[in-house]
Amino acid sequence: MKTPTMVSFSYCFSAGFFLMTAAQAAPATPAAPASKPEAADKPYVLFMRTDVAVEQNKKLYPVKDVHGPMFIISVKGQPVSVPMTGEAHKLEFQHGLTLARASASLTGLESGRAYTARQDPKMKRQRDAVLAEAVIGDNASLAEGQFITALNKNGILINSDARMPDGTPIRGAAESAAAQDANSAAAAATAFQSQSQMENLRQSNLTSGGFAHLAAEADMALENFDAVEVRFNVSSAVFLEKPYVVIITRFHARDDKPGVARNAVFAKALESIGAKPSRVEVLHGGFPFGFEIEDLQVHLYNEGKEVPTDVAQKRVPLTREEAFEYLKIDYFRGHKGETMPATPAVGRPDRLELARLGPKQLEAVYFVKVDKVGRPLGTFSDEECSQRVDDSIDALARNVRYYPALEQGKAVDGIARLILPHLEL
Fold this sequence. Notes:
By secondary structure, this protein is α+β, with helices and mostly antiparallel strands. It folds into three domains: 7-114 and 224-317, no CATH class; 121-220; 319-422, no CATH class. It is 25% helix and 35% strand. It has helices spanning 121-151, 173-203, 209-220, 320-334, 351-355, 359-363, 391-398; strands at residues 7-13, 18-21, 44-56, 59-67, 70-75, 78-83, 89-100, 104-114, 227-236, 243-252, 262-269, 278-285, 292-302, 305-307, 316-318, 343-346, 366-370, 376-380, 401-403, 405-407, 410-412, 414-418. The strands form six sheets. Strands 1, 3, 4, 5, 6, 7 and 15 form a seven-stranded antiparallel beta sheet that branches. A hairpin with a 2-residue loop joins strand 13 and strand 14 (305-307). Helix 1 packs antiparallel against helix 2 and helix 1 runs antiparallel to helix 3 (209-220). The longest helix is centred in the N-terminal third of the chain and has 31 residues, at 121-151. The model is unreliable at 1-37 (pLDDT under 50).
């Protein structure tokens, strides 16, 4: 549930992630360290939710999913893909305090600057060394072939003692043979020299792993990072079928003026998340060389709704009673002077409790007498409250907390309609 007060921010994105000016960005809160497991009596979480909407045909639509480099939105009930790259699109964030019952465990969060494969100094130097080795090898093979060909006089033999049928020596035969010998010797010498040069290069540091390592170390000292790397473990007691992660990074470029910061936002679809922890690793490039990270936020979503985690913004665990008191404050503030019936607020049965109910019990509408502070007094199967339900249903209904009925904004006793599976919290 969200409070009436919402804060929204609009951005434009392109080129693989979204860049925003510091003046537009939502106030960033440093990612919290992994927290200890909450006590069983605090199953609710109050946190600052971030909703993401993207513009399509001059209208903003909530993001429902992420698939590859695409945001998925719903337009007239049909899924529509909006690319994260290429043409710029307007992006809007809305922030609001939200109470949730389901939460995910996000632990071992590590993040920092990194290199894309194209920019990684070690990989670049290794590629250069391999390329140099290949070029030297090709040239050495070519020189060896040229040397052998020269020794064989290109496969052409000239007889220096060639004669006519009558035994007369052929004029110029001796000179041609001598010229061929001289040319072959010169070509062989040139080819041999090329072979020696290639062998010297092969033996030099140019293709050695040690030279590549030292050169890479020198390159890394320049800190020309161009990517952000994020790693964490995630699990959830409630199965998340279509999760995705949105990462918001505040950074400044090497040539930015003091006090100036930029923001980048990128998203990635994840495999389904269950009770068994899974490892998530995200690498995203496109940052200006040598940038510095000021802050990084990780937001987890499932089917378009943010799921609170250990690193959620302004996260506060609450007991059921604390959650109910928070909701009541919002309830009374939103219905000043109004007349309202009593309604269920918090206390949804868990999966095991719902599994014990029959189909008719799951579909049934029950009627609960509620006092002016929201406490249940009795559960009935009829609106006149004359037929009490069995103890199992009554126990579930008494575990629920209710918004009290209002008469011109004043809390009074009332009767609430209850369908157990329809409770959100």
